[in-house]
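Model the whole thing, not chain by chain.
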Amino acid sequence: MTEQKPIVFVIDDDPAIREALDSLLRSVGHDVRCFASVAAFLDAAKPDIASCLVLDVRLPGKSGMDFQKELTHSETPLPVIMMTGHGDIAMSVQAMKAGAIDFLPKPFREQDLLDAITTALDKDRSRRIHVAELDALRARLATLSDGERDVVAQVVLGRLNKQIAGDLAISEITVKVRRARAMRKMQAGSLAELVKMIDRLATEPSAQGH
Amino acid sequence: MPRTSFLPLLGGRLLMVLLAVLTAVIFVLDTITNFEIAVAVLYVAIVLIAVQHLGRRQVVMVAAGCMALTMLSFALTRTGSVASGLVNCAISLVAIAVTTTLALRAAAAEAAAREAQAQLAHITRVTMLGELTASIAHELNQPLAAIVLNGNAALRWLAGQPANLDEANKAAERIVRDAVRATDLIKRLRGLTKKAAGKAVRLDLNQTVTETLPLIQNEVSRHRAVLRTELADALPRVHADPVQVQQVILNLIVNALEAMKGEPQREVTVLTALGQPGEVLVSIHDSGRGLAAAQPDQIFDPFYTTKPDGMGMGLAISRSIVESHGGRIWAQAGVPRGSTFTFSLPAARERQ
Ligand SMILES: Nc1ncnc2c1ncn2[C@@H]1O[C@H](COP(=O)(O)OP(=O)(O)OP(=O)(O)O)[C@@H](O)[C@H]1O
Ligand SMILES: [Mg+2]
């Protein structure tokens, strides 16, 4: 992944707030994209780059609160920072429970927003790295032949070459050859590493698409 | 809420015709049937329909007519036992009379409730309390937040290496624009209060007090408090907007109730009295926890509050209302406890 400038998305129905946020965030070097509504945001293209969303609670159409909930339950959970016009404790608790990075009552200190954005982008960056790694592993796994995959499945269970050969009705030599090939294809330096890789693929819910 | 009617689609004239026909039918039936059959009781239906659609006096006239017809039928009926006819006739008359009284009373109660509701709605509108304040706070918050953000942005553009004067300039222009927006909002708010300071009329403050108390009775009961009045006789009238005076009284009573939360004795007294010459006084005395000794004048400042969910606007609004009428408002420690809030209004000149 080439390190591109991360994107900060902003949804607020008030043009004055949008302009101000756009200027402030650009002044610290962010790439900013502002939208007046959830619908406009959904219509826009979202490049595959670390990003986060600064979201107003009160919006015409779909409310920020509802949209945040949707986002956190979607397969591409964009980190969200909520803003509200009128500090509402109950609402902020709700937002934080739903996984918001931060909840900022307007007017807020600019540093609080910038800090929250840094946290949000870090979180999104590591999520993307994680997803990319998994994708790579999955791609490598796909290159294994059926025979190699059978052997690997047994190896990770901790079984001996002799047992595997017996079960699969092949020679012990063949087991060793297939195991070595599988390790090369998976780019595993050791047996332990191979086991870890297979484990990781097994426990990860097959999150697809971005 | 509109009064429910089982004849919603009928116009006034059509209704009268229908009532007349119905009455005639009942009358004929009553007359040609035996004494034993009390058809006249059906007149009750006429009365009930009339109550839904006609004024008080007309309803009484309709009822009287029905009763007269009942007696006429009795006189004209030829068949059956006269004794049971007499009993039936009496029952019908009583039924019509009782129904009319009850129905009229219910209608009056309903009208009073609706009136009180409308008044309360008007008052909430005038005070800008509740929802409206929340939305104004939100409205005002937006330009303020934008100003703060633009200020920060401008500083950062200036602090850059090299400084970006063009961006800083634009941010500064936005600050000015948003500040104007905030000022406009405040001007509009002022306009709103001013517009509310409308119709001054000659007012009997005793009557205003009496009419205001039902509006707050629910609150009083909810606080399990007792509300009493001590109204002075022969007060001169004042020249004031009744809705606004009501507003002040309500604010003061609400405060009194809130000050008595958790106190063993909860009693609010509303008093009227003569003040200085040419001045009428209204006092609200409570048996609450009393005023904090600190600064008795501060409580009239906008946004001064000691309550977790208070706006601190009640007394500020009350003071601006009273002063716009040429009066004064002040607070004193109550005797033996609690506090007393008093406002004065100048007496109106006697009409020549
Ligand atoms: N009857 C009273 N007894 C004791 N303290 C009072 C009384 N009335 C007012 N106060 C004090 O004065 C403060 C200001 O009153 P005010 O009515 O302006 O605002 P509030 O009641 O706090 O909020 P709200 O805007 O909801 O009326 C109160 O918070 C309270 O501390
Ligand atoms: Mg108050």
